[in-house]
Amino acid sequence: MRELVLQRGIVLGPGGPAAADVLIREGRVVEVGGHLRAEKVIDCDGMLVGPGFVDLHVHLREPGQEWKEDIESGSRAAAAGGFTAVVAMANTEPATDAGHLARYIQERGREVGLVEVIPAGAITLGRNGEHLAHLDELWKAGVRLFSDDGNTVQDAGLLRHAMEYISDLGGTVAQHAEDPGLTRNAHMHEGAVSSRLGMQGIPSLAEETIVARDLALAELTGVRYHVQHVSTAGTVELVRTAKRRGLPVTAEATPHHLALDHTEIEQMDSAYKMYPPLRSAQDVAAVAEALRDGTIDAVATDHAPHAAAEKDVPFEEAPRGVIGLETAAAVVQTFVAPDPVTLFERMSLAPATIAGLGEHGRWLEPGVPANIVVFAPDVRWTPRRFVSRSGNSPFLGRTLTGRVMATVHNGDVTYRSE
Amino acid sequence: MKHFLTTDTLSREELDGLLDLSDEFVEVLSRPIPKVPALRGRTVAMLFFEPSTRTRMSFERAAKALSADTMSFSPGTSSLSKGESLKDTALTIKAMGAEALVVRHKATGAPWRIADWTGLPVLNGGDGAHQHPTQALLDALTIRRHFGTLGGLRIAIVGDIRHSRVARSDISAFSTLGAEVTLVGPSTLLPVDLTGWPVVTAEGIDEVLDRDVVYLLRIQTERGGASVLPSLPEYVSRFGMTRERFARMPDHAVVMHPGPMNRGVEIAPEVADHERSLVESQVANGIAVRMAVLFRLLGGEVADA
Predict the structure, then answer these.
(1) In Å, how far is B87's CA from the nearest CA of chain A?
(2) Which of A37, A77, A232, A415 sits CB 3.0–4.6 Å from A388 for a disulfide?
(3) B109 contacts on A by Cβ (under 8 Å)
(4) What is the pLDDT of residue B227?
């Protein structure tokens, strides 16, 4: 019998955090209480035991760019970060724009068996912004979130039709918001640092104009709309206002946008190159505050692995993106320090709801699937290497507070910290 | 001094020291045989990843005047066009025996990366729109030799500041040496955020004709000129150093330009050739300051100079 007890932790149940043991049997939580016994035990003294994290936004690079990462190495990295489910973006090669591709990714994830891998579907064929992707096929293959991530759907008329169609299906349109007319030849946030370095800047408006347009279209079509990687105070305000008006809008922020600002780029190190770019300190504060107050629903890593040689070039020539799965919870704990309930709401519950994943993101109580993370909020550690095939992290070598100690997926331990 | 990458971090003492040394090399260059054996047997490589005949020739002339050997790299015919990485190219040139690298690259920060990779002394010959520190040194030397000092001088820099590595390097050097710097240009060509810059701004060139130095920058049409200016004649009317405007400048004032000049756009031909134009001195002084920097980085013996 597959049995496991997580002992003496602070368990995140429907009634809030409470000291207890958790008994897991055959992939489900069967009891939460005192003095529970099983052959296999993990001591969780002083640690938070809660629903496994769910990442709405990862790049696993398979198919097409397996030298950067593949579903297996990405799943290992996810498990090491406390995740039990991840949503794989559609910018694979080929793009995930048809049912068979979505099924392949899901099945490959199941074969690896470390986390649930759910593909996002492309909104347009090849993510080229010209024709709708095979939306119905994707839906039937289990896709619930649609995004051309990496690209923005620029054509407002096409996006309107996509929203109408996806709304009929019951899915969510997620947008990487970036107006290319405002980002041409640009590599970092437009501001004092870009001016000093002589680099073309990406103004905050490049994100905000697209979000403003999309919110109007979402209101017109009634679709559930999700803003990916919010980076500016202006976007936060747009989302806040839309939510107040009752629109079905959600938003995510990455750990790096919650922690770092554009002054990091003074050293011109390509480990800090990502889109949207690191913004001003005021933006970082606004995004962090929005995560605390729930305007931003979820933390999502935008885990974007690249090979070392691809990043070991001058900043402007480096590909955009940084990895994030293995440091996400620690970065959030270090820089935002939410209370335990808020931490799990933003990293487990809300993303599971947005991704349409009923088996994840549930407060621990008898009967729920055993997708669980054990997180030590006070442990200090310094990432020196990664499980991911890639190491392009701005947090490499930085001391963080909060560490994932164990991950349980469908009742099996998929990660234990050394 | 391990590298020469930016003027941002140089103190007044360091700048003055380099200018003093440059003065000595100006004297060397005026001799019948303008050459010293200071760096005999040493090898300097020119890594110009974007085209620049003038700067490369100036550095080569400087190296040769110090009796150094030079190696030259041009991207058009190199293995870079076959896909070799910048890092491998730099390491290959190091392995061939280069002891110092002069680097020009279109990407901001490329010389810093090459310095990290190779560990060799690197001279920034221009990176993106970021820094061109030997240009700043030659400009400062030219001004100092003309006025005796930069302290208390009022200098206006006019034109495409946003895309100008010359302006960024000059602003730091000039202000560190005690000059007051004013920037003039259309807002499409000014940096978006001047927070922390030791400068003031003016609307048009007519506001700065009372300055001691008016430094005119080239309008870089290749950097998207069409979308930042309605037309060149409009630019001339607001920002061009025409003959009429030059006539309104005080008698002691001078004009400068880093070249190559667009005659008739940022500078009228008669002004460019006027005796109060320091353009030719800038070019000549460029060799002396590059000698000074190479000499410092490669640790030549002072006695040889």
Answers:
(1) 7
(2) A77
(3) 197, 268, 314-316
(4) 75
**What value does the mean pLDDT take over residues A316-341?**
98
State the DSSP code for B144.
Answer: H
| Nearest Cα residue to B105 out of A100, B290, A231, B85 | B85
- The answer to whether the CB of A261 falls within 8 A of the CB of A276 is no
Q: Do A313 and B131 touch (CB under 8 A)?
A: no
Confirm if A158 and A146 have CB atoms less than 8 A apart. no
Cα–chain-centroid distance for residue B66? Answer: 20
Q: Per the CB < 8 Å rule, is B109 touching A201?
A: no
> Does residue A302 carry a catalytic annotation?
yes
Chain A interface disruption, residue of B50, B84, B113, B117, most A CBs within 10 A: B113
A198 and B193 within 8 Å at the Cβ level: the answer is: no
Q: Which is it for the CA torsion B94, B100, B105, B111, positive or negative?
A: positive
Given a cut of 90, whether residue A60 has pLDDT beyond it is yes
CA A186 – CA A184 distance, rounded (Å): 5
B194 touches chain A (CB under 8 A): yes
Which helix (H) or strand (E) segment holds residue B184: the answer is strand B180-184
The C-alpha R_g of chain A, in whole angstroms, comes to 20
d(CA B37, CA B14): 24
Amino acid at A392: N
A313/B85 Cβ within 8 A: yes
Asked whether residue B295 carries a pLDDT value surpassing 70, the answer given is yes
Residues 116-145 of B with CB under 8 A from A: 128-131
Residue closest to B58 by CA, chosen among B15, B104, B14, B94: B104
For residue B82, the model assigns a pLDDT of 63
Nearest residue to A112 via CA among A68, A74, A65, A80: A74
Indicate the pLDDT class of residue B215, thresholds 50, 70 and 90.
very high
* B86 to A195: CB separation less than 8 angstroms, yes or no: no
d(CA A37, CA A21): 9
Taking the Cβ of residue B72 and every Cβ of chain A, the question of whether any pair is shorter than 8 Å is answered with no
Residue of B80, B105, B192 to mutate, interface with A, max A Cβ within 10 Å: B192
Please enumerate in sequence order all residues whose Cβ is within 8 A of that of B194, keeping only pairs 6 or more positions apart, or say none: A192, A195, B183, B201
pLDDT tens per residue, range A173-204: 999 999 999 999 999 999 999 999 999 999 99
Q: Hey, which residues does B267 pair with through a beta bridge?
A: B241, B263
Confidence of residue A371 (pLDDT cuts 50, 70, 90): very high
pLDDT at B254: 98
Please say if the pLDDT value at position B302 is more than 50.
Answer: no
In this complex, the residue of A199, A312, A313 whose CB is nearest that of residue B108 is: A199
Q: To which residue do tokens 């003492």 refer?
A: B13
Q: Compare CB distances from A268 to B109, B165, B196 and report the shortest one's residue.
A: B109
A263/A280 Cα distance (integer angstroms): 8
Catalytic entry in A302, A312, A378, A412? A302
The pTM of this model reads 0.94
* Helices vs. strands in chain B: H and E counts, helices first: 11, 9
**Is the pLDDT at B286 greater than 70, yes or no?**
yes
Q: Do B108 and A192 touch (CB under 8 A)?
A: no
Alpha-carbon distance values, B12 to B139, B150, B178, B290 (Å): 15, 11, 9, 18
Q: Which of B249, B202, B240 is nearest to B218 (CA)?
A: B240
- ipTM, interface predicted TM-score of the complex: 0.92
